[in-house]
Write a structure and sequence with these properties.
about 500 residues; alpha+beta; 6-stranded antiparallel beta sheet; 9 helices
C-alpha cells in the first residue's frame, strides 16, 4: 500500500465534521526536546554443557553481556529454576529467614501453521501438547492461534484453564493441512527435470553440457509456495505483534512445515525480528517432512531468539519446552530508549570453558509510531475492543489510477475525539497536538500492507474539551476487496480504532 497522509487537522465542537486544511507530504512537527526513557531489557539465557545438559549455579561474574559489540554492565541478575526465581524484593526479606522463591509465570503462544504443515505429524504434535498440559505451572497461561494460509483464527485466548486449551488443541487437529499439496508440487517440478534429462540423453546430447544447463533447475522453487510463504511469515510476525501477551516468560511454540525454510529463508527475518522485539523465545516443531536439513534450518531460526528446534521430541514435547523455558538465567540491563526503531545486537558470553549459551540476538528501540502499527495489526487480525472503536471513518470516495489498473486512491476523513489528543504549547505560539496513526489493510487473500504516520492539530487558541478533530487522508490501495483499519494512540495510552470495508 502506498499512501499520502494529510496530517493537519481542524477542531470542531460537535458533528458534523468541519473542513480541514492539509497538504500531502507535510514535514513532521518540530520536536520540543529529545526524550530518553530508561527501560530494563531482559535477556533470558540458557546455558548447557558439552552433553547439551543445562548448567546451574552460575553467578553474574560468569557472564559477559555485549550490546552492539560493546560490553555493558549486567544490572539485574537471577537464576530461574523450574519457573521460580530465588531473588525476592529486599523489603520482603527477613534476616536469618530463607526467602521462598518467587514464581515466574510463562506465557506460551501455540501457533499452528496449517499452510505448510502435513496433517498426520501436525496432529501428533497437537496430541502430544494436549496430553502434557499438566506440566504447565499454576501461574502459566497459554493461547492457541491457527493460520490457514489466508487468515488467523484464535482458537483459545490467554487462559490457565487446561480444559479450554485441550479443546482448542483438539479443534486445531480438525482443520485442513495444506502442506502436502505444496510438497507434491515441489517434488513434481524435480520429476519434470529428471524426465527432461532422460529424453535429452536418449537423443544423444552431451551429459556434461546438459548437466550444466539443468543443475540450476533443481534449485527452482514452486512460485505458489513462495507466494504463500510470504503470507505465512507475515501472518506469524503479525500474530506476535498484534496478540496481547500477559506478563512473564514469553514462549512461541511454532508448529510448521520445516521444509518451507528452503523456499525463501530471508522471508523468516520479520518473524525472528518480531520475536526478539517482543521478547518471545521460539521453539520450532517441524510437522511435515522432518528432514534433517529442515530441522537444522528451524533450529537456526529458533536459536536467534534463544530457543531451539523441538522436532522429534514426541510425547515429551511440551514437558521439554516447559522445562527449558522454565529454567534459565535472567540477565537484565538498563537501556536508554529513544523511540527511534533502531535494532541493537545482543550477545551473551559465558566465561567458563566448555559451556554454550542460548539467548536472544537483538532488541528493538520501538517508537510510538511502530507500537501504534502493532496495535493496528492486532485490531485487524484479532479484533479490537468495542469500547475503543471511537474513530469516525467516512469514505469520501475511491478513484481508479489511470497508469496503474490494479490500484485505487482512497479518500477518507477521520474524526478523532478531542479528549484523545494531548496539547502542548507550540514554539511559534498556540497549541499543538500529535498522535501516532497506523493504517493497515488486510485483503481477502491474506495480503496485507500498512502505513505509519502522525496526525497534527495546530491551534492558535486554547483547545476545546470536547468535540472531534477532523483529518483528511488519501491512501493508495490495491484494487481488491479488503478491510482497512485506522488506529491512533490516545493521550491516556489507549488505542482508539475505526475501520471500513471496501468492495470492488
Amino acid at each position: 500500500m502506498h499512501g499520502r497522509i494529510l496530517l493537519i487537522g481542524s477542531i470542531v465542537a460537535a458533528l458534523p465534521l468541519a473542513s480541514a486544511q492539509a497538504q500531502a507530504g507535510d514535514k513532521p512537527a518540530p520536536t520540543f526536546g529529545e526524550t530518553v526513557e530508561v527501560r530494563v531489557v531482559n535477556v533470558e539465557t540458557v546455558v548447557v554443557d558439552a552433553a547439551n545438559q543445562p548448567v546451574h549455579g552460575l553467578t553474574k561474574a560468569d557472564f559477559r553481556l555485549l550490546v552492539d559489540g560493546k560490553e555493558v554492565p549486567i544490572d539485574h541478575f537471577d537464576e530461574v529454576l523450574e519457573a521460580s526465581a530465588a531473588t525476592a524484593p529486599p523489603a520482603a526479606a527477613t534476616p536469618g529467614v530463607p526467602t521462598p522463591p518467587t514464581e515466574v509465570a510463562r506465557a506460551l503462544l501455540v501457533l499452528v501453521d496449517d499452510s505448510f504443515a502435513v496433517q498426520a505429524p501436525r496432529n501428533a504434535a497437537l496430541q502430544s501438547l494436549g496430553r502434557e498440559l499438566s506440566t504447565l505451572g499454576a501461574a502459566d497461561q497459554a493461547a492457541v492461534v491457527a493460520f490457514d494460509g489466508r487468515r488467523l483464527d484464535t482458537l483459545a485466548s490467554w487462559t490457565s484453564d487446561r480444559r479450554v486449551l485441550a479443546d482448542a488443541l483438539a479443534a486445531a487437529a480438525k482443520r485442513p493441512a495444506l502442506g502436502s499439496r505444496f510438497i507434491a508440487e515441489d517434488r513434481g517440478m524435480g520429476e519434470d527435470v529428471d524426465l527432461t534429462i532422460e529424453a535429452a540423453l536418449e537423443a544423444g546430447l552431451d551429459p556434461d553440457e546438459l548437466g550444466m544447463v539443468t543443475a540450476p533447475l533443481y534449485k527452482r522453487v514452486n512460485p505458489a509456495a513462495r507466494t504463500q510463504l510470504r503470507r505465512t511469515t507475515d501472518a506469524m510476525a503479525g500474530a506476535l505483534r498484534g496478540f496481547e501477551t500477559p506478563p512473564g516468560r514469553k514462549v512461541l511454540v511454532l508448529l510448521t512445515g520445516g521444509w518451507s525454510t528452503r523456499v525463501a529463508p530471508q522471508l523468516f527475518g520479520p518473524l525472528v525480528e518480531s520475536a526478539n522485539r517482543l521478547g518471545y523465545t521460539l521453539y520450532a516443531v517441524d510437522v511435515a517432512t522432518n528432514e534433517p536439513a529442515a530441522t537444522k534450518a528451524l533450529d537456526a531460526l529458533a536459536r536467534a531468539t534463544g530457543g531451539r528446534d523441538a522436532s522429534g521430541l514426541g510425547r515429551k514435547l511440551l514437558a521439554t519446552i516447559s522445562r527449558d523455558a522454565g529454567s534459565y538465567y535472567w540477565l537484565g540491563f538498563d537501556a536508554d530508549f529513544r523511540g527511534n526503531d533502531s535494532v541493537h545486537k545482543v550477545e551473551v558470553q559465558v566465561l567458563r570453558p566448555g559451556l554454550r549459551v542460548r539467548s536472544r540476538s537483538s532488541y528493538s528501540d520501538v517508537s510510538g509510531r511502530t507500537e501504534t502499527s502493532m496495535r493496528a495489526e492486532g485490531v485487524s487480525l484479532f479484533g479490537g475492543a468495542p469500547e475503543d472503536k471511537r474513530l469516525i471513518v467516512i469514505v469520501e470516495g475511491t478513484k481508479d489510477l489511470a497508469r496503474k489498473k490494479h490500484e485505487v486512491e482512497l479518500a477518507v476523513t477521520l474524526g478523532v475525539p478531542v479528549e484523545a489528543l494531548s496539547f502542548s504549547p507550540a514554539p511559534e505560539g498556540g497549541f499543538l497536538a500529535e498522535v501516532p496513526l497506523a493504517i493497515l489493510a488486510l485483503d481477502k487473500d491474506g495480503g496485507r500492507s500498512e502505513i505509519a504516520s502522525r496526525l497534527r492539530v495546530a491551534l492558535s487558541g486554547a483547545p476545546p474539551t470536547q468535540g472531534l478533530a477532523r483529518f483528511r487522508t488519501t491512501v493508495k490501495l490495491r484494487r481488491v476487496d479488503q478491510r482497512v483499519v485506522f488506529t491512533v494512540e490516545a493521550a491516556d495510552g489507549r488505542f482508539l480504532w475505526g475501520d471500513t470495508e471496501l468492495k470492488f
